[in-house]
Amino acid sequence: MEVVIVPDAVAGGELIAETIAALLTRKPGALLGVATGSTPLPVYEALAAKAASGAVDVSRARICQLDEYVGLPAGHPESYRSVVLREVVRPLGLGEDAFMGPDGAAGDIAAACAEYDRALAEAGGVDLQLLGIGTDGHIGFNEPCSSLASRTRIKTLTRQTRQDNARFFDSPEEVPHHVITQGIGTILEARHLVLLATGEAKAEAVALAVEGPLAAVVPASALQLHPHATVVVDEAAASGLKLAGYFRDTYAAKPDWQAI
Ligand code: GLP
């Protein structure tokens, strides 16, 4: 695992957008897994700016969702489908045909989950999966004690996650209890995992995920199992890391030819 400590969220967004741009230059039809929440927005802004300036051609990129609420009415502005279309797909000038996600309104949720895992595999697998981290250490919506081998499935949100996400809804009660999320096993199949965390509120979860034991109680610790995982943190989110000095030295001494 590589840990990169950046000065702030904008610098983190720029670094990850550069990485995605390099991937799309190498592989124009790459499948990009995107996360929701506030943290990844600087990535999407920086990538859209690169696309608009012609620094990268994103016209063949494909975008896939990490997770979704269950039971929101079709077209609800806070369904993750709506969020990803609004924040990622349209700003990149892509159409809905370039986008895939699980169906949170399906009559048969279990079948929709299995279908999404199949669709990801048939699409050739995710090339780069961008992740955020919940204050309880979740990735996607894999709450503490999710199986490290889990596949896409329905999960129940913790009270803490429902509270954390209440800011997106008119009232806290509107946050759904149930969600569909790519499983940890599904996420680990992506070729490159990039987790971005910013702000003091994420410091404890980041320290446990990066330096703590591999444990289902901290789902993000599963990144320790992945051969190509990059954790990008700002100073505040890095504040609980015992090895921060080592991570800084390593990044400063990184050979020019080696990307994150
Ligand atoms: C939600 C999403 C996660 C995201 C997390 C953190 O729970 N399902 O993918 O990482 O929120 O969100 P934020 O970046 O807004 O703190």
User: CATH topology, what is it called?
Assistant: Rossmann fold
Can you list the ligands bound to this structure?
2-amino-2-deoxy-6-O-phosphono-alpha-D-glucopyranose
Name the average pLDDT. 97
CATH architectural grouping:
3-Layer(aba) Sandwich
Rg computed from alpha carbons, rounded to a whole number of angstroms: 17 Å
Strand order in the largest sheet: 1-10-9-6-2-3-5
Put simply, the count of helices is 8
How many domains in all?
A: 1
| Helix-residue proportion | 25-40%
How many individual β-strands? 10
Please state the structural category. alpha/beta
Descriptive account of the structure:
With 260 residues, the protein is of the alpha/beta class. The chain has one domain: Rossmann fold (3-Layer(aba) Sandwich), CATH 3.40.50. Helices cover 32% and strands 16% of the residues. It is built from eight helices and ten strands. The strands form two sheets. A seven-stranded parallel sheet has the order 1-10-9-6-2-3-5, sandwiched between helices. Helix 7 (203-211) links the parallel strand 9 (192-197) and strand 10. Helix 1 (9-26) packs across helix 2 (41-53). The model has no long low-confidence stretch (mean pLDDT 97). Residues 35-39, 66-67, 132-134, 140-141, 161, 165 line the site of 2-amino-2-deoxy-6-O-phosphono-alpha-D-glucopyranose (GLP).
